[in-house]
Design goal:
- 49% of the residues are buried.
- The chain is α/β, with parallel strands linked by helices and 396 residues long.
- The strands form three sheets. A seven-stranded mixed sheet has the order 3-9-8-7-6-4-5, with helices on both faces. The protein has a four-stranded antiparallel sheet with strand order 10-11-14-13. A three-stranded mixed sheet has the order 1-2-12.
- The protein is built from 15 helices and 14 strands.
- The protein has two domains: 133 residues, Aspartate Aminotransferase, domain 1, CATH 3.90.1150.10; 236 residues, Aspartate Aminotransferase, domain 2.
- The chain is globular, with a radius of gyration of 22 Å.
- The longest helix has 19 residues.
- The structure holds pyridoxal-5'-phosphate.
- The site of pyridoxal-5'-phosphate has 14 residues, from α5.
- Pyridoxal-5'-phosphate binds next to α5.
Length: 396
């Protein structure tokens, strides 16, 4: 390695010295509200398991049966010999659920976002991206030759200014892209206003609904449903790795021409293996549950409301909203240390939550991000609040 090992070690040491080293916790059980790690049992409040489908018995059965019926792996990209009828069935079901003409599966939503910009936009075109968009959108934009513009998080005045700028730059196609729900705040994008602006300027709108599909909106169809713009968004991307079973896979759901062109040109579709048969079947079952039953959504909403209510009563500062992502704020200079000490103390009490500080969130806006699930019972939610209170007393 000609000295490279030493250089890498120095880089790792610097990450450690900055207090930014990430340590994996080893879980010894299936994903659920109650898990065990090598450090002991814990109530889990940091998974994206919003609807509690990651270990739902019907999802597990569907995946297990698919192993017998469809086998283990595809050993092919989709267009050579990697498409079973169930892959197309799932794509149709996703499109139907989120309200588009068709959809196309990718190995992950990271790949879906890696694919879309390069296919849709050339150097003649422009993309306008919310500054807090997911890393995969940032990378996907980098992979395209489009001119890049960025607007302040959910800031419509700035979005308008950037739309003007794309006009001055003479851009042919303009695509506005935003997360439907922002993962560090739980805030929804103002999609109605964004669609109004897009219409005014003749731009397209793309929404990454990874933290919304399945549970946001009356029927769980996503942030575009919640904002009343289901028929006005041009491109939806999303993941099968969160609320919809949490297995793996992502998708682009869009107009037929977009999906058809992605099938010809999208590099992660053309050059990466098809989603495994059992994952397709389990995801289909998860989607059916999300589509056909309001019950998991009702329980999730009740849990989020109860948590917000009890935490507010206990004197904690929360970011407002209705999303099951609930940021518990620890503002100020000392906030980062406090948040991380409280999260550590809570784990000691068997409640697993994660503290986030700079550079993941802005300086002075440290937080513990709590994620509610339909798999939590009311007692679980109360136990989480109790652990917050006890940890605060302990840490001072
Ligand atoms: C989680 C997430 C992704 C990545 O999804 P994967 O399927 O795990 O690759 C992409 N975008 C957003 C907004 C996400 O939250």
């Amino acid at each position: 390695m000609y000295g490279v090992k030493e250089q890498l070690r120095a880089e790792l040491d610097q990450i450690e010295a900055d207090g930014l080293t990430k340590h994996e916790r080893l879980i010894t059980t299936p994903q659920s509200s109650h898990i065990a790690t090598t450090a002991g049992e814990a109530l889990n409040f940091c998974a994206n398991n919003y609807l509690g489908l990651a270990n739902h018995p019907d999802v597990v059965v569907a995946a297990r049966e698919a192993l017998d019926e469809w086998g283990f792996g595809m050993a092919s990209v989709r267009f050579i010999c990697g498409t079973q009828t169930q892959h197309r069935d799932l794509e149709k079901a996703i499109a139907d659920f989120v309200g588009t003409e068709d959809s196309i599966l990718f190995p992950s939503c990271f790949d879906a976002n890696g694919a879309i910009f390069e296919v849709l936009l050339t150097a003649e075109d422009a993309v306008i991206s919310d500054e807090l968009n997911h890393a995969s959108i940032i990378d996907g934009v980098r992979l395209s030759k489009a001119q890049r513009f960025r607007y302040k998080n959910r800031d419509l005045a700035d979005l308008r200014a950037q739309l003007e700028a794309t006009k001055e730059a003479g851009a042919r196609r303009v695509l506005i892209v935003t997360d439907g729900a922002f993962s560090m705040d739980g805030y929804l994008a103002p999609l109605e206003e964004i669609c109004d602006l897009a219409e005014e300027f003749g731009a397209m709108v793309m929404v990454d609904d990874s933290h919304a599909t399945g549970f946001i909106g009356q029927g769980g169809r996503g942030s575009h449903e919640a904002c009343g713009v289901m028929d006005r968004v041009d491109v939806m991307t999303g993941t099968l790795g969160k609320a919809l079973g949490g297995g793996s896979g992502g998708y682009v759901a869009a107009h037929q021409e977009v999906v058809d062109l992605l099938k010809q040109r999208a590099r992660p579709y053309l050059f990466s293996n098809a989603v495994a048969p059992s994952v397709v079947a389990g995801s289909m079952k998860a989607l059916e549950i999300a589509r056909d039953s309001d019950e998991p959504r009702r329980v999730l909403r009740r849990n989020a409301e109860l948590f917000r209510e009890l935490m507010t009563e206990a004197g904690f500062e929360l970011l407002p909203g209705e999303h099951p992502i609930v940021p518990v704020m620890f503002p100020g200079e000392d906030g980062a240390r406090k948040a991380s000490q409280i999260a550590d103390a809570m784990l000691g009490k068997g409640v697993y939550v994660i503290a986030f500080s700079y550079p993941v969130v802005p300086k002075g806006k440290a937080r513990i991000r709590v994620q509610l699930s339909a798999a939590h019972s009311e007692d679980d939610v109360r136990a989480c609040v109790d652990a917050f209170v006890a940890a605060r007393d302990e840490v001072g």
